[in-house]
Amino acid sequence: MMDRLLARWPLLIAVAFCVYASVLLWNGFRSQEQLTAGAESRLITEAQRQAAQLGDFLSDRRVDVSELAESHEIETYLTNKALGMSLRYGLEANLDSIRERLSRWSAKNIVRGKEIYNRIAFFDTDGIPLAEVGPGAGAIALPIDIAAGVTITFDREHRQLVVTAPIIRKKAFVGAIMAFSDISILSGYLRSEPDGAQMREALLTQSGEDVIAPEATPWLDPALGRKFADLPENRIVPFAEIAPAIHVGDPADMVAVRTPIPISPLSLITIVGDQQVYGHITSRRLLYLLSALPPLTFFAAILLEQMRRRHEVLHARYIETTRHSDELRDRNSALSEEITRRKEVEAALRESEQRFRKLFDEAPLPSHLIDPSDGSIVDCNAAAATMLGYDRDSLRGMRLMDIDPIAQNREVLWRAPSLMGQSVQFETQHQTRSGEIHDVAIASVPIDIARRRLACMTVVDITERKRAEKRILHLAHHDALTSLPNRILLNERMAEELHRARRHGGHFAVLCLDLDGFKAINDTMGHDAGDVVLCTFADHLRAMIRMDELVARTGGDEFAVLLYNIPHPKAAEQVAQRLLDSLPLSVDLGGYSGTLGGSIGIAIYPEDGDDCATLQKNADTALYRAKAEGKGRYRRFESWMDHSLAERRALERDLRLAIEHDEIEMYFQPQFACDTLQLTGFEALVRWDHAERGLVPPGVFIPLAEECGLIIQIGRMVLEKSCRLAAAWRPRCPVAVNLSPLQFRDSGFLSLLSSILESTDFPASLLELEVTEGVLIKDEEQALGTLRALKELGVQIALDDFGTGYSGLSYLRSFPFDRIKIDKCFVHAQEHDAGTQTILEAVLAMSKRLNLRVIAEGVETEEQLAMLRMQGCSEVQGFLLGRPMPASEVQAFLMSTMDDGERYGQPAPALVAAK
């Protein structure tokens, strides 16, 4: 190998030289391209910088006019006009103020010793100027594109830039501020070097019909404007491609670039000499001449190599003539060796067949030897006979189709003999002598035995694997918890039914079902209890559906029913009513017995959607509407429901913004001793006064916050504000703050509470946290640990809405409560319900024995207050004694209660002294 390389050293040297020269030339071409690209990039960057400077100037003008549109003078005029004030009695004075403001503003905006604006005017909705400064008075054409906001346009007739700011009040267009500037203001920013220099700049309108160049050098022909407007943005184009001849320089030596100016209909045209752009970059002609050197050298080396090879061929022929005699002797010797080798091969073949027969007979996998001519079994091993239940002699002579139970598999096996010349694999079934069916996988390979071509077929029993595959397929299309079809199978069946309905017509329906109150059970009782509820409801649905209906679990506590080929839309509503009539469903959760209700949304093809996704979405929308109207009912989709769902999403978005912008306000409702009516503290409440919606009730946005996870942020804000505000009251009073279940279970709540108490300097003993019974049910041990940790901080604990949840009176003994709060439903009901009165008296008596304070909320009448006094209730709260008040009024309320001397004929309040 090395000798051959050394013999060709001239060619190797030539090849190496060519490679080296080619690399140098490639680097030269690449360097030239990089230098050219860098030069073009600098020109484009400079043009973009100039365009950005012009854009900044125009942006400042937009800001100026926008500020005028929002000025106090215009706002005053519009307000007075809306109130019906006439020109004679006030509006004319307002307009004079606007004119004075416009005049001052125009005089203030000067560039290069010249006012920027020729005319500034305030127009009404009809385009009539109400107040203006500068020449050019007259009406303008309105309306203005409100959605575009503040715009900059070009007035071709007067060659002016027009900055327009629409004035919007309550989403209505009420007028506009328009400022007019001579285009020469921008011309002053353009560069135009003296004749003979290589730099020119101009402004071009979007249509290319107007060209604006510096007044000192009007060098650009306006007839070329359209061609410049068609130039691609920020790309360098040879000037000769735009205009073959022009009076500035030689077009062949010039290049042009068009750069759009931001926020305006103008573009910046820059024309520069190519010598100024590219400088003295090496000419490509020299590189092309040098590139011819490597191939010439290579061709010369090839010529020398061909001459050397011809010499070697002549020398080889001479050697060949002297070698024939030796070759004849070698062939005779080789023939003798081949005869000996063939005898050895035949012996080895016989030995190999014997070994194969031994392996075949003793192989653990069932195997057959098949005659490819008719598919008959020539022989089989013991494993195959055992698997099929025959003896080996009985199997010999049988054909493959005799042991296959399925006609189509017999066809496969009949075709198998034609494939015996190659290796094949396939799956089929075998039937044993006793009739048992086995799924099998067969691998067949051709084999020669005793000069006969046979096929050796190895059989693997895959019955268990097939069963496992069926189970996996079932799991892929069914819910693991309830064994109902899942969303995948539901979508497949819906697609099939949609295809049928499109071809043959008819209706089908999708019903979305949702368990009412499932989230509360799942959150309070735990996921295991939730699983029991879901399985119970799934079994109930199975029992309710018919053969022409499919029920599926689509996720969480949501289910769907697919009704095939219903005769009319009313049939879907009848099925929904049948399902609702079977509810509520009783469930036993190990100590808690309750009932399950449901809500249903209906969407019908084709009235409510013509594809699967739309039908499911609309059924979900109808379900949401049914739940919003009170649950336990069904609703069919209507187009207006989309708006209702969008409204909920808009409310959620507004709530997020309200939290972000701190728009949730704190209110406080006073609490009093029942017998003396002394002020004992306040309960912290929240109010949301939306700028457009007005006062949003807490019963609306608090449940929404719990659903979308915002209740943690609201709870943190309420706790921090309550402590901070109460710390500033004099004298200080106890404050009760409601605690949501999610906030109570938050792992970081205790550290957050400690941090808030420390940062606000509010005594822990004056803070009372109100928890509902629902936070105690899910994990009593964890809840007890959290309550004890709160008690160690010195915080008071109250059980809110007592008697309305899942628990009984045992919680008062098990958990360290300081006070219980009677729900207002008991306070109102006991006036006309003796049973409620008896329950309330029992709760008050037991609380007294447990040394627990009791506060009754919702006291609105003197009769209710009197009954609570007779029953021995310790504290009361309600509109009769004090409505919720803003945080800013609490201090004044405290001072007034100290000065009044008496309230309801009782002594003045004894407030808790500040610590």
Automatic annotation (TrEMBL):
Residue stretches making up the PAS domain: 352-401
A GO BP entry: cellular response to nitric oxide
GO molecular function: cyclic-guanylate-specific phosphodiesterase activity
PROSITE patterns: EAL, GGDEF, PAS
UniProt keyword annotations, A-Z: Coiled coil
InterPro entries in the cross-refs: Biofilm_reg_signaling, EAL_dom, EAL_sf, GGDEF_dom, Nucleotide_cyclase, PAS, PAS-like_dom_sf, Rev_trsase/Diguanyl_cyclase
CDD domains listed in its UniProt record: EAL, GGDEF, PAS
Keyword Coiled coil in record: yes
Catalytic activity: 3',3'-c-di-GMP + H2O = 5'-phosphoguanylyl(3'->5')guanosine + H(+)
Pfam annotation, one family: EAL
Domain GGDEF: 506-639
Coiled coil: 335-362
EAL domain mapped to chain residues: 648-898
Stated name of the protein: PAS domain S-box-containing protein/diguanylate cyclase (GGDEF) domain-containing protein
